[in-house]
User: What shape does this take?
Amino acid sequence: MTPHDPYHRGSRAVQDRVGVRGLADHVGRSIGPGIRPVAAAFLELQPMLVVGARDPDSGRVWASPLTGEPGFVRATGAHQVSVAGRAGTGDPLAAALGRPGTPVGTIALDPRTRRRMRLNGRARPTPRGLAIEADQVFSNCPKYLQKRHLLGARTGAGPAGPPRVTAELTPDQQRFVAAADTFFIATVRDGGADASHRGGNPGFLRVLSPYELSWPDYPGNAMFLTLGNLTTDPGAGLLLLDWTTGTALQLTGTAALAYGPDGTRTVRFTLTEAVETAGASPWTWSAPEYSPANP
Assistant: This one.
């Protein structure tokens, strides 16, 4: 990756395999280190920011939700945001986000407007939460985003419950995953991290066994940042939210991309550990209006 090329060899390999390098070059012009006023205004409206990173102690990749009243995420400069909040004590990224210089990927996804913005950089702890120095800032198209309305904080919402840690998905967790229409995925590259979103109609995320999942790779923006990262480093973290109760299911493991003979692409995820936390988010959202782009 250079200032003139936002992609590394993994992303380039997938782009070339699919035959979209020219389109990726065009779309890649939107990636830059600066936070424009419209992006800053978007961030201040969000009640949640998803952060992806690798825990340097375990080597595992996780995606974690950070939540707060709108305004808890703010641009504090042309290349920096501050987050007034931390990962919970039992969150698997709490220690990593407490260290200065941790590479992070973030995504702010607004189900109300089907808009999303990604900001990647390095985080450092502050007295109130986090500061993130950005090196990549860009928006994505609204494809596969389900529309939801924010109904407000749950009545009596308090601190998150103690995490439940398992080495495989329980039957209830398997049903929850199979019914999901949205999840977030964290991946890493040499010296960096990324957080992205995947969506579809319920059933697009398939449970193959208590420790294996798969999902189709739908046509997107041709950047292939997530799949490019997985091409060079298989570490991955998934985050699924119960949009009504605020329960978070965080999964860590490895993921691999497979190409079908008909041009389709499928990602297969192998679980190492699952962390389920009740009340990880205080917010409750309406039932979804599924994206018209969903297959």
